[in-house]
Amino acid sequence: MAKDERFEKTYSQGKLTVTEIWVDRETGVNYLFHASGYAGGLTPLLDRDGKPVITTVIN
Hints:
The chain is an all-beta fold. The protein has a domain at 7-44. 0% of the residues lie in helices and 47% in strands. It contains no helices and four strands. The protein has a four-stranded antiparallel beta sheet, with no helix packed on it. A hairpin with a 5-residue loop joins strand 2 (17-24) and strand 3 (30-36).
């Protein structure tokens, strides 16, 4: 992976129906991506208090 890429995939599950977690390397915010067939969606991953999950990013 090139160092200038902003997003890093940290989790992946499935082949036809895909669930992935991506981390923004600048902010540390985690995003949940889900796709099934021709449909898909992306949303911030939230903790139980409704706040975004933040990963410590080491550059």
